[in-house]
Amino acid sequence: MGKRRKKRRKSERSFLHLLIFMFFMLIFYAVKLMPAAAYPFISRLLGLLAFHTMRSSKRLVMRNLDIAYGESMGRSEKTLICKNLFASIVLNFCETVQIVKISTEKLVGMSVIEGEENLYAAMKQARGVVGISSHMGNFPRFQAVLVKKGFPVNFFSRPPSGVYLARFFRKLFGSVSIPLIYLNDKGKAIKEAQEWISGKGILCFYVDQHSGNGVEVDFFNRKVFSPVGAATFARKYDCPVIGLFTYRLADGRHKIIIEGPYPAQRTDNPSEDIRINTAFFMTRVEHYVRECPGQWYSWMHKRFPSKLKRKK
Q1: How many domains does one find in the chain?
Q2: Is 32 part of any domain?
Q3: Are 145 and 108 in contact (CB under 8 A)?
Q4: Residue burial 166-178, b: 16+ Cβ < 10 Å; e: rest
Q5: What's the rounded Cα separation, in Å, for the pair 89 and 126?
Q6: Which range of residues forms the domain containing residue 233?
Q7: Does residue 28 lie within any of the structural domains?
Q8: Does some domain include residue 91?
Q9: Which residue, 82, 94, 106, 164, has most beta carbons within 10 Å?
């Protein structure tokens, strides 16, 4: 009976994933056929709908904003940030779909890059480069821009649940030659990352979300756990570290800021070095979140757990 039940549940999950995939494909091709001029209107409309219907997500965003800003920010301003966040998510999706139907010249031309010389300076050291970034702005699009500019850059990515969607996104990003290291197989991901950094490539980490296996650092005057992958790789391979941040400008273009190479602590105490360097990375994330709070999507995650519990 147990095996039959497990088999039935597996079939039910597979069918559900198929339905979700079919619904997603309808949306994908509708957006693909839609003119870009319609993206802002559709995003505001659907974002407002999501704000009023996705109550649990809305509560989480507002809770995180309350924790981060406290009484220094009024309720109306927090509500506006939440509304802008939902609209930005829809707009990001539309613009990500757009990547597959516009030329490289147009894609790059819709971005403003500041600090490109910092990336060249890091690459000149010829030891590989570690990049830190956050889930802000249209981060899939900024990955595409860096690749199309000719930089040997690779990012970690967590594929969506469901075999159909995961397979689709692999093909989608592969069709526009955007390399990604998928985290569904951690052993394989680490091996690919080691090969990439050893080949003098740029290996980028998103460092802004909670990690029970991370180190405790300050973020918005709160203690949080942050992932240590970037600091660990940089120390192990003696790589320079740069910051890669992006956000949408008022005119619709995307600004990409490249910082660094950052100064890094390197002593005889590896664990303390990793903690100090990770803490510094999070100060840079916080800086940009404060600059554009309505474009940071980790408000929708449990970035500020009520009790810090490290994974065993």
Answers
A1: 1
A2: no
A3: yes
A4: bebbeebbeeeeb
A5: 37
A6: 105-297
A7: no
A8: no
A9: 82
95: its two tokens: 């613009």
pLDDT tens column, 108-119 = 999 999 999 999
pLDDT value at position 119? 95
Buried-exposed string 100-118: b where 16+ CB fall within 10 A, e elsewhere: eeeeeeebeebbebebeeb
Q: Which residues of the chain have pLDDT under 50?
A: 1, 312
The whole-number pLDDT of residue 60 equals 96
In a domain, 156, yes or no: yes
> How high is the pLDDT of residue 118?
96
Identify residue 75 by its one-letter amino acid code.
R
Q: How far apart are CA 118 and CA 130, in angstroms?
A: 13
Nearest in space to 68 (alpha carbons), one of 309, 311, 312, 296: 296
- DSSP secondary structure of the chain: -HHHHHHHHHHHHHHHHHHHHHHHHHHHHHHHHS-GGGHHHHHHHHHHHHHHH-HHHHHHHHHHHHHHHGGGS-HHHHHHHHHHHHHHHHHHHHHHHHGGGS-HHHHHHTEEEE-HHHHHHHHTT-S-EEEEE-SBSSHHHHHHHHHHTT--EEEEE-PPSSHHHHHHHHHHHHHTT--EEETTSHHHHHHHHHHHHHTT-EEEEE--S--TTSEEEEETTEEEEE--HHHHHHHHTT--EEEEEEEE-TTS-EEEEEE-PPP----S-HHHHHHHHHHHHHHHHHHHHHH-GGGBGGGGS--S-SS-----
pLDDT at 173: 81
Instruction: For 124-140, write each residue's pLDDT tens digit.
Output: 998 999 999 999 999 88
